[in-house]
């Protein structure tokens, strides 16, 4: 849907200063492909940049306040941990940890 003069007047002070979400997504996809990167099957979007930053910070041990500041979320927001940090948390939960593993060097009962 094209921007109207009224919309432009409210959202941009100069021509070209305001980018729409779909344009940013197109640029991210373009540079992702240009860099020769391959997706893991999930869509490549500009939103992934925000999620990736939050995930990296969480994996590095960032506090809730550091996440809020970095992502410009409201103070006390649960969004960073609930929505963006899941991949970091999921990586720590390996379902195969519950599977017994044969260790030939382990002492045997007997």
Automatic annotation (TrEMBL):
Pfam families: Phage_integrase. Residues 13-88 form the Tyr recombinase domain. InterPro entries: DNA_brk_join_enz, Integrase-like_cat_sf, Integrase_catalytic. Residues 88-110 are annotated as: Disordered. The keyword RNA-binding does not apply. Residues 89-100 have a biased composition (Basic and acidic residues). One of its GO terms (biological process) is DNA recombination. It comes from the Bacteria. Keywords: DNA recombination. One of its GO terms (molecular function) is DNA binding. This is Tyrosine-type recombinase/integrase. It comes from Streptomyces ferrugineus. The lineage of its organism: Bacteria, Bacillati, Actinomycetota, Actinomycetes, Kitasatosporales.
């Amino acid at each position: 849907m094209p921007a109207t003069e009224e919309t432009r007047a409210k959202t941009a002070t100069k021509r070209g200063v305001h980018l729409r979400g779909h344009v940013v997504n197109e640029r991210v996809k373009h540079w992702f492909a240009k860099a020769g990167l391959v997706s893991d099957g999930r869509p490549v979007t500009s939103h992934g940049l925000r999620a990736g930053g939050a995930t990296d910070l969480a994996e590095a041990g960032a506090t809730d306040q550091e996440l809020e500041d970095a992502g410009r979320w409201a103070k006390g927001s649960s969004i960073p941990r609930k929505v963006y940090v899941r991949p970091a948390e999921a990586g720590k939960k390996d379902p195969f940890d519950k599977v017994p593993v044969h260790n030939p060097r382990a002492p045997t009962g007997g």
